[in-house]
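Build the 3D complex.
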Amino acid sequence: MATKQEKINAILNELKMATSDIKGAGVISPDGMMIADQLGGNQGDAAAAMGAALGSLAKRVTDTLKVGDFQEVNIRGANAGILLFDIEHRASLIVIVNQGANLGLVLLEARQAQSQLGQMI
Amino acid sequence: MSETTKNNFNRAKAFCNFDAVYAPLLPTIKDVVMKHGDEITNTFYAELANDEVAAAIVSGRVEQLKVTHKQWMEELFNGEYGDAYFAQRYKIGETHVRAKIEPYFVEVITSFLRRKFAEVLSDNPKALEAALTILDLDAIIIIGAYHEDRMKRMSEVTGMNQALLERLMSFG
Ligand code: HEM
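Done.
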C-alpha cells in the first residue's frame, strides 16, 4: 500500500505532467516546512517559508475583509508565476508556472490537485 | 507563552553561575540596600515624573506604586530565584505590557537603578556585582514579556504562527 507521502507525490507528479506550463509544485505546512517538494532547484526551504507566509497572510486578509474562506493566490513575476492554494487550512499547494502560461488549464488542474490533497492531508 | 523568556532567564543564570556565586550573597546585602529603599523608590518616581509621558502614566497612583516598587526591590534580595520567582517577575512584565508602557521607560529606569545600586554598594564590589546581576536578570524577564507580546501580536496580525515567523526571520 502506498504511503501518504507517496500519494501526495503522485498527485504532484500528475499535476506536473498535465501541462508543460507547470514548472514545479510542492506541498507546504503552516510552519513553512516542505511536506512534498517537486519544485526543482534548490530553493525548497525558502519557497516553503515564503509560501506559508503568503498563505497565512492571504487567509488573514480574506478573513479581515470578509470575502469568504481563503482559496488561492496568484502572483505574476516578470519571468514566472506563483500560484498558492489552500488545503483545508492544514497545508498549502504551491505551483510555479512559466511566463505566459495557459492559466485556464493550470488552474483547472491545480484545483483538482487541491481537492485531492484536501481529502488526504 | 513565557517559554522563550524562561529559557533565556535560566541560560543567563547559568552563564554567570548565578545560583552558586550570587544567589547566596544577595540576602546578606538586603539590609544595606533597603536602608536606602525609600530614597531609591522616591527618586525612581521623581525621575519618571521628569518625563511628560511617563509622568502621565503614573499620575494619581504614585503612592500606591511606591509600595509595590519597594516590595519588588526587597524581593530582589530574598535568595530564591527559581520557577516561582520567574513566574512572579514575568507577571510584573505582563502588567507593564498590558498597561502599554513603552519598554524604553523600563530600560531607562533600570539604568537609573543600576546607578543607584552602584552608589549604595560602592564599598563592596562583590555585593554590587550580585545586585547588578539580579537587576539584569529581572530586566531580561520584563523585556522578555514585551518581546513575547510583540511576537504574539505579530502572529495575530499576519496570521503566521510563531514557528513560521521564526523561520522567516532566520532567512534574514
Ligand atoms: C525596572 C522597572 C520597573 C519595575 C521593577 C516596576 C515594578 C512594578 C511592580 C512590581 C508593579 C506591580 C505589578 C502588579 O501589580 O502586578 C508595577 C506596576 C506598575 N508600574 Fe512599574 N515597574 C517598573 C517600571 C515602570 C515604569 C518605567 C513605569 C511607567 C513609565 C511603570 C508604571 C507602572 C504602572 C502604571 C503600574 C500599574 C499597572 C496596573 O496595575 O495596571 N513601571 N510596577
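The pocket of protoporphyrin IX containing FE is lined by residues B 48, 54, 57-58, 65, 68-69, 72, 91-92, 95-96, 99, 101, 105-106, 109-110 (CB under 6 Å).
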